[in-house]
Amino acid sequence: MSLASKLPWTHRFAGGYPGIGSQPLPIDADAIDYLSRMATADGAGVETGVATAVDAFFRDAKAAGVFDALKACCILAGARTLAGALVPVVGDAPTNVADGFVEGDYSRTDGLTGDGATTYLDSGRAGDDDLQDDCHLALYVSTIASGSSALIAAFTNVPSAFGKQINSTSFQDFFTRFNTSSTDGATSFQAGFAGATRADGDRYFKRNNSSTREIVVPSTGVSPEPVYVFASSLGQVSDASIAFYSIGDSLGSNPADGLAALDTAVTNLITAIGAAL
Fold first, then answer.
1. What are the E-state strand segments in the chain?
2. Torsion-angle region of residue 145: left (phi > 0), alpha (psi -120 to 50) or beta?
């Protein structure tokens, strides 16, 4: 055990760990590592309520069997600064393309808000880093976009259109394409968790507003383009507010249940952060 791991929280987190009192402390080792990296980026301590919300997310996602599917993931809320919000839970840190997002675009409770024009994140993960029939995308959208836009996408348009994406439209519809050249029938989009996962070549599942739909569409290809958050390689830049994203493998052997479990863990996380702040 390292010396740092033996020290109390007030020593391990720069700037202290205010408000401990009789409240429980984080116990998940991966959560503690993430919180330490966040505190370093922020240059200040992590509040107890934020830390315990993050710890609960790690433990809940692991208990549900979906944590290992997260290969690139950011909690875009809770941290004190934009730099802290871009610290990855797992995977590479996203690139704030052209430094488009600035501190004023960041809310500790609602996440990052795009401008619908030039600001987006490169997740550092390509569309073909995940297998064609073993993949997921997920988000927590605090405020829906004002018009048609890509919320998260890896998309190829030549020689034919295919890839994976979660979009919302000017009619506030929930629109997905998941390693196919065709899109599903759009449903009404609601703020909160939105995700999709594919575990076989015949179908995928999408979820929003606490409802999961099976989409029976065969996969046709995987795009090598970067997975962008707030945009796609075709543009379609979003002005939504996004507080969480994840990219990676299919969500367990029963992907519909896995999608619901990730929804619960993420929704509880963002709700708890809001209550703590």
1. 70-75, 88-90, 95-96, 106-107, 111-113, 121-126, 135-143, 149-156, 162-168, 173-180, 187-188, 192-198, 204-208, 211-215, 226-229, 241-248
2. beta
- The helix or strand, by DSSP H or E, that contains position 260, with its residue range, turns out to be helix 255-276
Element (H, E) at 63: helix 48-63
Among 229, 231, 232, 233, which Cα is nearest to 242's? 229
pTM exceeds 0.70 for this model: yes
AA letter at 101: F
* Tokens standing for residue 211: 């409802």
Cα separation, 6 vs 32, in Å, equals 13
Nearest in space to 86 (alpha carbons), one of 63, 66, 68, 102: 102
Give me the CATH code for the 3-276 domain, please: 2.60.120
Q: What is the pLDDT of residues 105-132, one digit of tens each?
A: 999 999 999 999 999 999 999 999 999 9
Nearest to 269, CA basis, from 13, 49, 70, 43? 49
Residue extents of the structural domains in the chain: 3-276
